[in-house]
Amino acid sequence: MKNSVPVSKIMTKKLVTLTANDDLVTAEQLFKKHHIRHIPVVEGNTIKGMLSYTDLLRISFADAVDEHEEYVDTIVYNMFTIPQVMVSDVVSVTSATSIRDVARFLSKKEFHALPVVDNGELVGIVTTTDLINYLLEYIEG
Protein backbone atom coordinates (compact mmCIF):
# COMPACT_ATOMS: atom_id res chain seq x y z
CA MET A 1 0.00 0.00 0.00
CA LYS A 2 1.37 3.40 -0.96
CA ASN A 3 2.09 5.59 2.05
CA SER A 4 1.72 8.94 0.34
CA VAL A 5 -1.58 8.62 -1.53
CA PRO A 6 -3.41 11.93 -0.98
CA VAL A 7 -6.83 11.97 0.65
CA SER A 8 -8.13 13.73 -2.47
CA LYS A 9 -8.22 10.27 -4.09
CA ILE A 10 -10.93 9.01 -1.71
CA MET A 11 -12.70 12.10 -0.35
CA THR A 12 -16.26 12.96 -1.23
CA LYS A 13 -16.25 15.99 -3.52
CA LYS A 14 -19.98 16.34 -4.21
CA LEU A 15 -20.89 17.82 -0.86
CA VAL A 16 -24.19 18.10 0.90
CA THR A 17 -23.93 21.20 3.10
CA LEU A 18 -25.99 23.27 5.48
CA THR A 19 -25.79 26.89 6.58
CA ALA A 20 -26.25 28.27 10.08
CA ASN A 21 -29.66 29.58 8.95
CA ASP A 22 -30.99 26.15 7.99
CA ASP A 23 -33.04 24.23 10.53
CA LEU A 24 -32.61 20.80 12.07
CA VAL A 25 -35.64 19.38 10.26
CA THR A 26 -33.88 20.16 6.98
CA ALA A 27 -30.69 18.60 8.37
CA GLU A 28 -32.46 15.35 9.25
CA GLN A 29 -34.10 15.22 5.82
CA LEU A 30 -30.68 15.60 4.16
CA PHE A 31 -29.12 12.89 6.35
CA LYS A 32 -31.87 10.45 5.41
CA LYS A 33 -32.19 11.42 1.73
CA HIS A 34 -28.45 11.10 1.02
CA HIS A 35 -27.75 8.23 3.48
CA ILE A 36 -24.94 10.20 5.14
CA ARG A 37 -23.88 10.80 8.73
CA HIS A 38 -21.92 14.09 8.53
CA ILE A 39 -22.78 17.44 6.98
CA PRO A 40 -20.43 20.42 6.87
CA VAL A 41 -22.00 23.72 7.93
CA VAL A 42 -20.73 26.47 5.66
CA GLU A 43 -20.82 30.18 5.04
CA GLY A 44 -20.13 30.49 1.34
CA ASN A 45 -17.24 28.06 0.76
CA THR A 46 -15.88 28.44 4.29
CA ILE A 47 -16.53 25.73 6.86
CA LYS A 48 -18.09 26.94 10.09
CA GLY A 49 -18.90 23.60 11.71
CA MET A 50 -19.82 19.95 11.32
CA LEU A 51 -23.16 18.43 12.12
CA SER A 52 -23.38 14.68 12.57
CA TYR A 53 -26.45 12.49 12.63
CA THR A 54 -25.34 11.48 16.13
CA ASP A 55 -25.61 15.15 17.16
CA LEU A 56 -29.27 15.07 16.11
CA LEU A 57 -29.92 11.80 17.90
CA ARG A 58 -28.63 13.31 21.13
CA ILE A 59 -31.40 15.90 21.14
CA SER A 60 -34.26 14.10 19.46
CA PHE A 61 -36.24 10.99 18.99
CA ALA A 62 -35.11 10.74 15.36
CA ASP A 63 -35.22 6.95 15.28
CA ALA A 64 -38.24 6.51 17.54
CA VAL A 65 -40.96 4.36 16.07
CA ASP A 66 -44.07 6.31 16.88
CA GLU A 67 -47.10 7.41 14.91
CA HIS A 68 -46.41 11.01 16.00
CA GLU A 69 -42.67 10.81 15.30
CA GLU A 70 -42.56 13.66 12.76
CA TYR A 71 -44.49 15.97 15.06
CA VAL A 72 -42.25 15.21 18.06
CA ASP A 73 -39.08 15.72 16.01
CA THR A 74 -40.29 19.08 14.76
CA ILE A 75 -41.03 20.29 18.28
CA VAL A 76 -37.62 19.19 19.58
CA TYR A 77 -35.77 20.49 16.51
CA ASN A 78 -37.41 23.90 16.78
CA MET A 79 -35.91 24.27 20.26
CA PHE A 80 -32.36 24.31 18.84
CA THR A 81 -30.45 25.92 16.00
CA ILE A 82 -27.74 24.31 13.90
CA PRO A 83 -25.01 26.46 15.53
CA GLN A 84 -26.17 25.21 18.96
CA VAL A 85 -25.87 21.56 17.94
CA MET A 86 -22.93 21.48 15.51
CA VAL A 87 -19.28 21.11 16.43
CA SER A 88 -17.72 24.49 15.74
CA ASP A 89 -14.06 23.84 16.58
CA VAL A 90 -13.56 21.77 13.45
CA VAL A 91 -10.31 19.98 12.69
CA SER A 92 -9.61 19.78 8.97
CA VAL A 93 -7.03 18.36 6.58
CA THR A 94 -5.88 19.46 3.13
CA SER A 95 -6.43 17.49 -0.05
CA ALA A 96 -2.70 16.70 -0.07
CA THR A 97 -2.78 15.05 3.37
CA SER A 98 -1.98 11.37 3.02
CA ILE A 99 -4.66 8.74 3.49
CA ARG A 100 -2.35 7.13 6.03
CA ASP A 101 -2.19 10.32 8.14
CA VAL A 102 -5.97 10.72 7.98
CA ALA A 103 -6.45 7.09 9.05
CA ARG A 104 -4.06 7.52 11.96
CA PHE A 105 -5.78 10.70 13.08
CA LEU A 106 -9.32 9.31 12.88
CA SER A 107 -8.31 6.12 14.67
CA LYS A 108 -7.30 8.20 17.70
CA LYS A 109 -10.26 10.60 17.81
CA GLU A 110 -13.91 10.25 18.70
CA PHE A 111 -15.24 11.59 15.43
CA HIS A 112 -15.57 9.92 12.06
CA ALA A 113 -15.29 12.66 9.45
CA LEU A 114 -12.87 15.42 8.51
CA PRO A 115 -13.56 18.32 6.22
CA VAL A 116 -10.95 18.77 3.51
CA VAL A 117 -9.97 22.44 3.19
CA ASP A 118 -7.57 24.01 0.69
CA ASN A 119 -6.69 27.71 0.96
CA GLY A 120 -9.57 28.29 3.39
CA GLU A 121 -12.14 26.74 1.05
CA LEU A 122 -14.07 23.52 1.71
CA VAL A 123 -13.29 21.10 -1.15
CA GLY A 124 -14.40 17.76 0.29
CA ILE A 125 -15.03 15.52 3.25
CA VAL A 126 -13.35 12.25 4.21
CA THR A 127 -15.00 9.72 6.51
CA THR A 128 -14.09 6.46 8.15
CA THR A 129 -16.35 4.82 5.56
CA ASP A 130 -14.16 6.27 2.78
CA LEU A 131 -11.12 4.78 4.52
CA ILE A 132 -12.75 1.37 4.91
CA ASN A 133 -13.79 1.34 1.24
CA TYR A 134 -10.24 2.26 0.22
CA LEU A 135 -8.85 -0.54 2.34
CA LEU A 136 -11.35 -3.04 0.91
CA GLU A 137 -10.45 -1.99 -2.62
CA TYR A 138 -6.78 -2.48 -1.82
CA ILE A 139 -7.33 -5.90 -0.21
CA GLU A 140 -9.65 -7.15 -2.92
CA GLY A 141 -7.23 -5.72 -5.46
Automatic annotation (TrEMBL):
<dbReference type="InterPro" id="IPR046342">
    <property type="entry name" value="CBS_dom_sf"/>
</dbReference>
<dbReference type="Pfam" id="PF00571">
    <property type="entry name" value="CBS"/>
</dbReference>
<protein>
    <submittedName>
        <fullName>CBS domain-containing protein</fullName>
    </submittedName>
</protein>
<dbReference type="InterPro" id="IPR000644">
    <property type="entry name" value="CBS_dom"/>
</dbReference>
<feature type="domain" description="CBS">
    <location>
        <begin position="11"/>
        <end position="67"/>
    </location>
</feature>
<feature type="domain" description="CBS">
    <location>
        <begin position="86"/>
        <end position="141"/>
    </location>
</feature>
<dbReference type="InterPro" id="IPR051257">
    <property type="entry name" value="Diverse_CBS-Domain"/>
</dbReference>
<keyword id="KW-0129">CBS domain</keyword>
